[in-house]
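Quick one, tokens below:
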């Protein structure tokens, strides 16, 4: 009888226990594998034909940080280099970003803008995400014009991860 009670108690505990604690919430209930939620530093690679790029962004207290160096992109496409700020919004399952034109580099005659959306794998420690985007390069008309014309456009493949739970 005592062995039967022990066996039933063991079966009950195994059937009702959740990872992490008895009766506590199971892992990943807040949509993130870590207690920091979406906070941290992220990096993504963007690729297209004759194009490669790196996008960095940082979140603290569930909001994108104001650091211009931690929220930026650099692209090399068709022999040209582009860089600028990245504005990113993270939800539990998606990332949406806008790659803005760098207005601080007024001396250049090229510019780029773009965007991407990605699905997050929230149940991975690296917070892996993958998606698609678009970039558009512009070239300035000859001086003294300040008008930029569409130079080329590309569809992008985006893949990225959270590189740190500490925002930079």
């Amino acid at each position: 009888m005592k062995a039967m009670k022990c066996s039933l108690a063991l079966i009950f505990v195994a059937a009702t226990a959740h990872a992490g604690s008895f009766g506590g919430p199971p892992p990943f209930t807040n949509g993130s594998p870590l207690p920091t939620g979406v906070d941290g530093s992220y990096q993504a690679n963007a690729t297209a034909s004759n194009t490669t790029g790196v996008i960095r962004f940082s979140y603290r207290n569930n909001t994108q940080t104001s650091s211009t160096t931690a929220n930026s992109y650099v692209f090399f496409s068709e022999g040209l280099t582009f860089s600028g700020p990245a504005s990113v919004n993270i939800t539990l399952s998606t990332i949406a970003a806008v790659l803005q034109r760098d207005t601080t580099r007024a001396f250049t005659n090229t510019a780029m803008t773009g965007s991407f959306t990605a699905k997050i794998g929230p149940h991975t420690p690296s917070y892996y995400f993958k998606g698609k985007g678009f970039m558009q390069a512009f070239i300035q008309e000859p001086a003294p014009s300040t008008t930029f014309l569409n130079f080329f456009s590309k569809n992008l493949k985006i893949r990225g991860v959270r590189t740190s739970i500490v925002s930079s």
